[in-house]
Design goal:
Blueprint lengths: L3 H10 L1 H7 L12 H5 L3 H40 L5 H18 L12 H18 L7 H8 L2 H11 L5 H15 L8 H13 L9 H17 L9 E2 L12 H8 L8 H7 L1 H13 L4 E2 L1 H9 L5 H15 L4 H9 L3 H14 L7 H6 L12 H7 L3 H20 L2 H25 L3 H17 L3 H12 L15 H9 L5 H15 L4 H12 L16 E2 L2 E2 L23 H4 L19 H9 L17 H19 L24 H11 L6 H16 L3 H8 L12 H16 L5 H12 L12 H31 L2
Organism: Gasterosteus aculeatus aculeatus
Protein name: FHF complex subunit HOOK-interacting protein C-terminal domain-containing protein
Family: Belongs to the FHIP family.
Length: 803
């Protein structure tokens, strides 16, 4: 029979069931006689009996469940109204309430949410937090000591591993996470904390798409955050493979009794820590000595969770890995790269995303697709497909590349070097190099555009270094014609700057333009400086054997300012006025060159401005195309380049002649050779190619290296026989231009019309003869003004910094 209390619960919660049963009761409340039931036949009797039996069973089950919930509510009400117990007694009460559940209950299939366990665990956390709040910083209270000395975390780990009752693993993970997050005092150094934490870490990521995945990643991330705060604690999580401490535990009465009812020794946290000095003092030495045989389970679990189909879980796992790689402990860094699959994860996923890209893509799409930071990749497949085919795959690749780059950037130095080398070997060499070396023009164009985008995106020092070694090689000795083909990829890329396909040439020139702006000294050394180091581009004659100077030049030299080929340019916008440069120029000296090797700036500037003859100039007819615009740009760019080169060990002045090996033959280097060859054909090349060639040359001229400045921007150096400089190449182009101008009628009006069309000031009309030549002349004029501005800015920057 039910008590009145039970009847209250049943009636209030199961009214529908009672309504169904009401026809079985007469007006007096008694059951019908069996004879009355027989009237409907035996079948009806059986159905009613079966229905009554199942209803009673449901009522009993529902009563038990409801009674459990009512008890929990009643418990909270009593706790709120009753006088508060001391915190320790309250804490022990809640813990023993949990352990009594395992001792008394026989139903281990009921989910944990139907029990009072979650409520008791929450109360224990609240008590620990309150206790810490009421005590001085760093002082351990009796509740925390009880948790530590009775190995409560060990017991909870065992229950969570067995998932008894169902859902207990989720509750245990939440308890650990909140405990580590809310308690300010350091818990992980204690053996009864870091040991069960390490065991629980091994349970995370075992099964993909597990119902506890969210709790697992939250737990792992809070552990990573704690290690970031105190990096030395990571030694506790480097587990020796030969000493795996975990053994199978029995979940049941014996385990609970062993952990809960052990006598309280009253030993404090500080005393127990002192009793186990080997745990703290020997951790670092043992981990470094055996790092080659250590397990880094925290990393392994995070790596497993990066394979989750839930993108939010993947992002959190990647964040946890980024925290771990940044830890400064050498033993952890070594274990990370040698005993985990982190490098494999980075490279394999990078290769997978790259191979998912279409074989042919428009370089403009690759170059202009929006930059996506890893973890912020929000997309719409229909919208992406509507923009261009492969956009989704490209964004996924660039997003993962960004993660690899940021991970290596944040990583401990030795770990960063290992990961960057893995990316070089398993992605750049194995996957990208065959793509760049292929003969298909479409494939070359796509792979070069992708490489250009990769160069633009990489910012980590270690990955940038490995990428440069992949592209240019590691050689540092001076380049010779015989050594040009020593590195096949480097040779092929430079040759592509002068490819039959203008598209490939432009894209490869853009790649090198992007490359020379990266903050790495080896780039310029490999492409340029190693060929200029000995200054053997200068004439190698003793001073007494040289012919006497006239006005600072050999008697047979041509003074470009007086040469009728270049003429005097009187246009106000194409030449500096006297007040612009004379006021800041050094005083005139008897020799054309100063004693420190720097030619007077006004002569250099006018040498470039006067290179193009009057009849080939058109800028002074169009407003806003004057020399002053280049001055502003050159000043800003030179300041930026000086900031990039500030950390490099570049000499401040040219290498003294007596220390130079001037007898060795000069070779300008493969890269400059191709650029000079291209510059020499500026009157016969498409406009877009000319713009890109001059863009690369002007950026090279901006670098503040004395040899590069001398070779690129000083028109008055005495070149060795057979050598050429940028100025001498332009002189030859102008000489060819003067001969060709004579054969073109109405050259100047046509030139002006073409300039206006390029600026959008005139609509496109009838075709003009010699369009390529006219466009080349306009680019040449603008390039000379740009070089003059660069020379002016660099000279004054050097004058301002000199004592």
């Amino acid at each position: 029979m039910y008590s009145s209390f039970d009847a209250l619960i049943v009636v209030s919660n199961y009214a529908p069931v009672l309504c169904v049963l009401r026809p079985l009761v007469d007006s007096n409340g008694s059951l019908y006689e069996s004879s009355n039931l027989d009237r409907g036949g035996n079948n009806r009797k059986k159905k009613i009996e079966e229905f009554s039996r199942s209803s009673r069973e449901k009522l009993v089950q529902s009563k038990n469940k409801m009674f459990s919930k009512f008890t929990s509510i009643l418990q909270h009400a009593v706790e709120a109204l009753a006088p508060s117990l001391p915190l320790q007694e309250d804490f022990v009460y809640h813990w023993k309430a949990i352990t009594h559940y395992y001792i008394e209950t026989s139903d281990d299939k009921a989910p944990v949410t139907d029990t009072n366990i979650p409520s008791h665990l929450e109360q224990m956390l609240d008590i620990l937090t309150q206790e810490e709040r009421e005590r001085e910083s760093g002082e351990t209270g009796p509740c925390m000591e009880y948790l530590l000395h009775h190995k409560i975390l060990e017991t909870l780990y065992t229950l969570g591993k067995a998932d008894c009752p169902p859902g207990m693993k989720q509750q245990v993970l939440t308890f650990y996470t909140k405990l580590l997050a809310h308690i300010r005092q350091p818990l992980l150094p204690h053996i009864n904390v870091h040991r069960p934490v390490q065991k629980l870490i091994r349970l995370c990521g075992e099964v993909l798409t597990a119902p506890t995945e969210n709790e697992e990643i939250q737990f792992l991330c809070i552990v990573c955050a704690k290690l970031k705060q105190d990096p030395y604690l990571v030694d506790f999580f480097l587990e020796n493979k030969s000493k795996r401490p975990e053994t199978k535990s029995r979940v049941g009465t014996e385990v609970v009794e062993e952990n809960v009812f052990a006598p309280d020794t009253g030993q404090s946290l500080a005393e127990e820590t002192v009793d186990r000095p080997e745990e703290l003092q020997g951790a670092a030495s043992s981990s470094s000595a055996t790092s080659s045989s250590n397990n880094y389970n925290l990393v392994t679990s995070l790596l497993n969770l990066t394979k989750s189909p839930d993108g939010r879980i993947v992002v959190k796992a990647c964040e946890g890995l980024m925290l771990l790689v940044s830890l400064p402990e050498p033993a952890a860094a070594k274990c990370l790269t040698e005993n985990t699959e982190l490098c494999e994860l980075l490279t394999d996923r990078l290769v997978t995303f790259y191979k998912a890209l279409p074989q042919s893509m428009d370089p403009v799409d690759i170059e202009t697709v929006e930059s996506v930071n890893w973890g912020l990749d929000v997309y719409n497949l229909k919208e992406d497909a509507a923009v261009f085919t492969g956009k989704r795959a490209l964004i996924s690749f660039l997003s993962w590349l960004d993660y690899c780059d940021q991970l290596i950037k944040e990583a401990q130095k030795s770990a960063a070097a290992v990961m960057a080398k893995a990316v070089r070997e398993r992605f750049f060499v194995s996957v990208m190099e065959p793509q760049l070396m292929q003969t298909s023009e479409v494939g070359i164009l796509t792979s070069t555009a992708l490489l250009n985008r990769i160069i633009r995106q990489v910012t980590s020092e270690a990955l940038l270094q490995e990428m440069i070694y992949f592209l240019l090689g590691e050689e540092s000795e001076p380049e010779t014609p015989a050594s040009v083909t020593q590195n096949p990829l480097r040779h092929r890329l430079i040759e592509h700057c002068d490819h039959l396909s203008d598209e490939i040439s432009i894209m490869t020139l853009r790649l090198f333009e992007q490359l020379i702006q990266k903050p790495n000294q080896h780039i310029l050394h490999s492409l340029l400086l190693r060929s200029l180091e000995e200054r053997n581009y200068l004439e190698n004659k003793p001073q007494d054997e040289r012919e006497p100077l006239e006005n600072g030049q050999p008697h047979d030299a041509v003074d470009l300012e007086e040469d009728p080929l270049f003429g005097e340019d009187t246009s106000p916008e194409s030449r500096l006025s006297g007040s612009d440069w004379l006021s800041s120029s050094p005083p005139q000296s008897p020799d054309h060159s100063k004693s420190d090797g720097k030619t007077e700036v006004h002569k250099i500037v006018n040498s470039f401005l006067c290179l193009v003859p009057d009849e080939a100039k058109s800028s002074y007819h169009v407003e806003g195309t004057g020399y002053d615009t280049y001055l502003r740009d050159a000043h800003r760019q030179f300041r930026d380049y000086c900031g990039v080169c500030q950390r490099w060990d570049w000499r401040g002045s040219p290498k003294p002649f007596e220390k130079c090996n001037l007898d060795s033959p000069f070779f300008e280097g493969h890269f400059l050779k191709v650029l000079f060859d291209r510059m020499g054909r500026i009157l016969d090349q498409p406009y877009e190619v000319n713009l890109q060639v001059t863009a690369v040359l002007s950026k090279l001229s901006l670098f503040p290296h004395p040899h590069l400045h001398e070779y690129q921007l000083d028109p008055y150096i005495n070149l060795a026989p057979g050598c050429r400089s940028l100025f001498s190449v332009i002189v030859r182009v102008v000489g060819d231009l003067m001969l060709r101008i004579q054969r073109i009628p109405d050259f100047t009006p046509k030139l002006l019309l073409v300039r206006k069309r390029l600026l959008g000031l005139e609509p496109e009309g009838i075709n003009i003869d010699h369009m390529t030549l006219l466009e080349g002349v306009i680019v040449l004029e603008e390039f000379c003004k740009e070089l003059a501005a660069i020379a002016f800015v660099k000279y004054h920057a050097a004058a301002a910094s000199s004592p």
